[in-house]
Design goal:
Strand content: 15-25%
Largest sheet: 5 strands, antiparallel
GO molecular function: DNA-binding transcription factor activity; sequence-specific DNA binding
Keywords: DNA-binding, Transcription, Transcription regulation
Strand order of the largest sheet: 1-2-8-3-6
Radius of gyration: 20 Å
Oligomer: single chain
Number of helices: 11
Order of helices and strands: EEEEEEEEHHHHHHHHHHH
Number of domains: 2
CATH architecture of the largest domain: Sandwich
Protein name: DNA-binding domain-containing protein, AraC-type
CATH superfamily of the largest domain: Jelly Rolls
Helix content: 40-55%
CATH topology of the largest domain: Jelly Rolls
Distance between the termini: 34 Å
Pfam family, one: HTH_18
Structural class: alpha+beta
């Protein structure tokens, strides 16, 4: 049984599986899967995870997965559709401003591998359940402002997921070296990648109470890259995501990521990847 609720940029629906195993498959875009009821085993890229009511999984287009249910199981599924990725976040529309939404999504997608399987902590289970229930109720009740409320609920869910990922990364780094700040610096850069003033070396050094030279040496010792080269490398990954999953032009992407223009973006992209952004886009079209 399936029921669908279509919003402008996300598709929200429930799906019930009664048979033992669903076939292995992948998706064209990104997907959050929340377990409303039931239990079983979720296989993602040949890795097996037990699941039960209240668990949440994030899937990317590269993931191949299937469910083996131990009892009748119902999921709430949030698909991030093509229209979501095709919109320039800087353009003003009559809808909610999705620029923060898109950027939060990017942080989650580029760091989700740091949490395997279920991405909800026990402390957050109650709030996730309340948000998912309200998300499904918005369309059923057909009340005013349901679209904007649904978008904001999804946005809040992504913030919670991003926080879980960030805390998991930092906690693991602290176990290895309690004094190590490198993942805090990397997280700060990633979350402020669109704010060129905040990721200048002097601003970063001020934020982490170090001199610019000391911070840069420390960063290179820990990562093998200077801060500038790391920023460019992360921007390249964001460019590849935009080229693969959106119809934004090279100049629009360049503007978002604070390159001088499309030529500047292409120069940095080619230096890192061996081909221009235009050539890369041709390989995926």
């Amino acid at each position: 049984m399936n029921s669908a609720h279509i919003y402008t940029d996300v598709k929200i629906f429930t799906k019930t599986i009664s048979s033992n195993t669903s076939r292995s498959h992948s998706h064209n875009y990104f997907e959050l899967i929340y377990v409303l009821k039931g239990k079983g085993k979720h296989t993602i890229n040949k890795n097996h995870y037990d699941f039960s009511k209240g668990d949440l999984f994030l899937l990317t287009p590269e993931d191949i997965h299937n469910f083996a249910v131990a009892e009748t199981t119902t999921f709430c599924i949030i698909d991030f559709t093509e229209s979501f990725f095709s919109e320039n976040p800087k353009k003003k529309t009559g809808k909610a401003d999705l620029s923060r939404f898109f950027k939060e999504l990017e942080y989650v997608f580029h760091n989700h591998h740091n949490i395997q399987g279920n991405i909800i902590t026990e402390n957050d289970k109650m709030i996730y359940r309340a948000l998912i229930d309200q998300l499904l109720n918005e369309e059923d009740n057909n009340r005013q402002y349901r679209f904007i409320i649904a978008q904001n609920i999804v946005f809040l869910l992504l913030h919670l997921v991003a926080r879980n990922i960030q805390e998991n990364i930092i906690a693991h780094s602290k176990l290895k070296d309690p004094k190590n700040k490198i993942y805090e610096i990397i997280t700060y850069i990633q979350q402020n990648i669109y704010e060129k003033d905040l990721i200048k070396l002097k601003s970063l050094a001020d934020n982490f109470n170090k001199s610019p030279d000391h911070l840069n040496r420390y960063f290179k010792r820990e990562t093998g890259k200077t801060i500038k080269s790391y920023i460019n490398a992360y921007k390249i990954e964001l460019i590849k995501t935009r080229l693969k999953f959106s119809n934004l032009s090279i100049s629009e992407i360049a503007d978002e990521l604070n390159f001088t223009d499309g030529s500047h973006l292409n120069k940095i992209f080619k230096k890192a990847y061996g081909k221009t952004a235009y050539q890369y886009k041709d390989t995926i079209d």
